């Protein structure tokens, strides 16, 4: 977030993160509100139930008319004609009460008026059609079942989830009444004639009775409310069940042998009608119960709508507050991030400077161990090459110079040295006054390469020092003495407050002796260093002729190296003096 575009991008991300759950909550709430509102405003099932009551009245009236019409055809008499004519007005009134009419594919069901016209035409032509009982029952049954199918089709399945069992039971009761109506009609034919017209009619009666019993059992299993309402309505009318049981058994036996009468048919009709009226009352009460459940759901939906509306209001009120809080918080985070980034940048800069300083004081591998709080144990190196150098006549130069000039002189010299040794596999150990100490092969081992690294570095330093003048003494050049020796050393970290990486051993002392006994512009080395250089190849050496170096009374041989193929030819004054063994 340091840049302006970064701030803007981060702000957008933060607001989006906050708005995602708000948007999800709003979407879920809106979906719930829409579904609840749709359910609250929808009155499909309620209207269907109310319409089913009207259709039930139509079916009930048509069933009675069917029974009387079948009785009249089976036993034509003034009495049966009177019974039939009483049914016509009741059927017409129930049809007229229908609140709406669905246009069906059958011609007679195109409209309410067409259906009444078709029904009246059949009534007027009844005496001239030569209808049989079976044909008459089939005609009315077809009409009744069209109305029942109509009722099934009007039931909205999608909205009947929580009352579907009661709704199925309600439809089952309507089917029960239809088959009982057929049973009543066929039973009247049996009692009017004293027998069934044919075996098919007898089987039709048996089928109607069995289907009605099975369907009623199914209705009671779908809804306990059906059994409860039925038991309540049948209480006190047990006698009718006993009478109907005896008469049903008598009809099943079919043994009246033609001794039928209108009175017996009327007795059967009246008992069955009372029983069917009880079922009709059960049907009506069941519709009221379903309507009550729908009313309770409407009430619950209304309460739910109010609660969701409150949630909506809260969301829309809180949403701007949340956005403002996120915006403010993001700004604060951005300010803190910028401050933290600047501090981190400064810290990394200081850390880098500290590490650079530490690496100047200690080798990188050793410094890394110290930073990791690992103990750095002293380490023995079997072979390394140590380099010492100083300025010949440094004491006289210092006496002729001010302290500032001495510092500038040494800084000029050692800056040149530091720049050159960075090109070789060597490590600067320390500087004390005009003394300069370098080692190769420590702390990083480089096999036999250490002597060559120190040798080529020494030649390079001599070459560059000859071009360098003392800053405050123009025309005066440095006179450098160099001594090197190859041998074993021990290296380790010394000190806690100002830790230093120091070398110990005879090799260091011999290298220092080489430097102190050397000549300016020359490089003294021990015999071991000479052997290492000869092994590497590329160096030309010759013996020193004076006997300034002795061990006791025995002078040491001296050699000169006049060429190094690694660097090319150098001036003759840059010969390397080699200290050989006795």
From TrEMBL:
InterPro entries on file: A/G_cyclase (IPR001054), Cyclic_nucleotide_synthase (IPR050401), HNOB_dom_associated (IPR011645), Nitrate/nitrite_sensing (IPR013587), Nucleotide_cyclase (IPR029787)
Transmembrane segment boundaries: 12-34, 305-327
Gene Ontology cellular component list: plasma membrane
Keywords: cGMP biosynthesis, Lyase, Membrane, Nucleotide-binding, Signal, Transmembrane, Transmembrane helix
Keyword hit for Translocase: no
Membrane-topology annotation of the record: Single-pass type I membrane protein
Predominant subcellular localization, coarse grouping: membrane
GO biological process, one term: intracellular signal transduction
SMART domains cross-referenced by the UniProt entry: CYCc
EC number: 4.6.1.2
Compartments, record wording: Membrane
Pfam families per record: Guanylate_cyc, HNOBA, NIT
GO molecular function: adenylate cyclase activity; guanylate cyclase activity; nucleotide binding; peptide receptor activity
Domain Guanylate cyclase span(s) in chain numbering: 385-515
Protein name: guanylate cyclase
């Amino acid at each position: 977030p340091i840049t302006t575009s970064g701030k803007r991008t981060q702000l957008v991300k933060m607001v989006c993160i906050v708005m995602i759950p708000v948007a999800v909550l709003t979407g879920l709430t809106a979906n719930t509100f829409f579904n609840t509102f749709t359910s609250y405003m929808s009155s499909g099932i309620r209207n269907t139930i109310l319409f089913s009551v009207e259709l039930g009245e139509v079916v009930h009236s048509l069933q009675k008319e069917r029974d009387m019409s079948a009785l009249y055809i089976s036993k034509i008499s003034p009495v049966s004609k009177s019974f039939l004519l009483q049914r016509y007005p009741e059927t017409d009134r129930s049809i007229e009460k229908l609140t709406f009419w669905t246009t069906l594919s059958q011609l007679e069901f195109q409209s309410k008026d067409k259906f009444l016209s078709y029904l009246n035409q059949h009534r007027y032509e009844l005496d001239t059609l030569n209808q049989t009982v079976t044909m008459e029952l089939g005609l009315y049954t077809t009409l009744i079942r069209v109305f029942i199918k109509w009722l099934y089709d009007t039931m909205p399945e999608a909205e009947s989830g929580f009352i579907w069992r009661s709704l199925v039971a309600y439809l089952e009761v309507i089917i029960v009444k239809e088959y009982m109506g057929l049973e009543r009609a066929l039973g009247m034919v049996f009692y009017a004639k004293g027998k069934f017209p044919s075996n098919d009619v007898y089987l039709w009666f048996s089928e109607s009775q069995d289907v009605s019993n099975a369907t009623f059992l199914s209705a009671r299993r779908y809804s306990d409310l059906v059994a409860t309402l039925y038991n309540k309505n049948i209480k006190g009318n047990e006698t009718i069940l006993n009478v109907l049981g005896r008469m049903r058994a008598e009809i099943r036996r079919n043994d009246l042998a033609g001794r039928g009468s209108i009175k017996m048919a009327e007795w059967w009709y009246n008992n069955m009608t009372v029983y069917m009226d009880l079922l009709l009352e059960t049907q009506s009460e069941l519709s009221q119960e379903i309507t009550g459940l729908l009313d309770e759901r409407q009430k619950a939906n209304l309460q739910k709508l109010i609660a969701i509306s409150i949630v909506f209001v809260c969301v829309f009120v809180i949403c701007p507050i949340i956005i403002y809080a996120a915006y403010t918080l993001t700004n604060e985070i951005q300010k803190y991030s910028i401050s933290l980034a600047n501090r981190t940048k400064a810290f990394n800069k200081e850390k880098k400077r500290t590490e650079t300083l530490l690496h100047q004081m200690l080798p990188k591998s050793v410094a890394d161990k110290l930073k990791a709080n690992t103990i750095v144990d002293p380490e023995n190196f079997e072979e390394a090459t140590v380099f010492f150098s100083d300025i010949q006549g440094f004491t006289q130069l210092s006496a002729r110079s001010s302290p500032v000039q001495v510092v500038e002189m040494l800084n000029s010299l050692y800056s040149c040295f530091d720049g050159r040794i960075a090109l070789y596999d060597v490590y600067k150990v320390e500087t004390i006054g005009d003394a300069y100490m370098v080692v190769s092969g420590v702390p990083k081992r480089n096999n036999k390469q250490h002597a060559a690294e120190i040798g080529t570095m020494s030649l390079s330093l001599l070459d560059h020092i000859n071009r360098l003048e003392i800053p405050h003494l123009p025309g005066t050049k440095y006179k450098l003495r160099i001594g090197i020796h190859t041998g074993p050393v021990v290296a380790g970290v010394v000190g806690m407050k100002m830790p230093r990486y120091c070398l110990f051993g005879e090799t260091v002392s011999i290298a220092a002796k080489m430097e102190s006994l050397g000549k300016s512009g020359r490089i003294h080395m021990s015999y071991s260093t000479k052997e290492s250089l000869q092994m590497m190849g590329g160096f030309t050496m010759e013996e020193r002729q004076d006997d300034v170096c002795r061990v006791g009374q025995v002078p040491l041989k001296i050699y000169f190296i006049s060429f190094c193929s690694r660097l090319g030819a150098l001036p003759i004054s840059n010969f390397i003096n080699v200290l050989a063994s006795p």
